[in-house]
Amino acid sequence: MTEADQRIEHRWDQVHTWGPYGLLLVSTVLSVLAGELMEGPAEWYAAGALVVSAVALQLWHGPRRGRRTPSRGGTVYYVLRWVISFALTWLNPFFAFYASTGYFDTDELMSGTRRQRLGLFATVVVVAGAQAGGLPFHSPVQWVLFGVMIVANNALLMAVGHLNQQEEQRSRERAGTIAELERTNTALQQALDENAALHAQLLVQAREAGVADERRRLAAEIHDTIAQGLTGIIAQLQVVGSAPDLPTARTHLDRASALARHSLGEARRSVQNLAPVALENDGLPEALKKTVAEWGERTGVRAEFTVTGTAEQLHEEISATLLRIAQEALSNASRHAHATRLGLTLTFLGDEVILDIRDDGRGFDPLAVPARSTAAGFGLDGMRARAERVAGSLTVETEPGHGTALSARVPLVRHDRSRGR
Known about the structure:
The chain is 67% helix and 9% strand. It has 421 residues and is an alpha+beta fold. It has a five-stranded mixed β-sheet with strand order 1-2-3-5-4, with helices on one face. Mean pLDDT is 83; it is low at 373-377.
């Protein structure tokens, strides 16, 4: 029970304890003031004795401490109080104020709906008799008034009773709602506890997945930097071995040296998880243009780079992903395609960026591509994984003898300028 409910219950205790005394006092004072209604000393003595009996009965009943439960003693008290109030009202109608106490506690003193209605009707008879001019009646008009007062008082009691029932129903509904809310809060707290435990578990799993993803990223970065750089260096050194003169050999040695320095820088950047060296000072279009030009010069393949749409500064992760895919595609073309022409197109299209790489090489059968092994590099699987890592996709169109067309589509995520400051 809340503190407010306790205060209300305490006030009802005071009403039920002191209300009969107060109404008896009011009735006595009014009866004294209207003493002409008493016919002689005998009636005064009788009224005094009845008042004393009413006080003694109230003292015997005791104060109310909390809502009472109907009992045999409560019924006896109610009947005796009614008898006293009836006798007093017979002597003087102003004692009907004391008789009205029967309206207040019928449900607490008498058990059963039938007894409660009978007790209320008995109280209505006394009060209506006083309202009709006092008992006994001396004219037919009083009897008519008595009947009207009984109907009026019963109608009033029915209206009040109906309102009380509605209030009790609302109270029960509120109590049920509060209980349901308590159960819901308990279930919600349990769900929150379970979610907290699940969140902790997900954090552990995410950490483990992040470690595994970082390992794959580093493996791909090393493959795209050191492995490709070493491949280029080996190719240049092989040319040196068969060079017809010293200037030609020196030219290829310079290229091998430049590739070695470039690969060293890429390896350091990859370990530090930074953008590729080519993107350090240039945007993606410029970096792709230089990469294609250097690749064409190194391989002797006619290579062209084209930008379509309005170029925008992309997020560093998007730029790095597309550059790595282009580098891997160029590396595969130089090793396997034996192409004479290659075209790379970067397209800015609304909310996505498309990288297309086409060559006129010998192509291959996509269904016949063996599964990636440890020594086979990353190839198509690596490029596809890179695209999917940034919510993109990779498609390949090729067939033996008809070249290869590769297309990577990724979301257009613009550079976060706030991070650059």
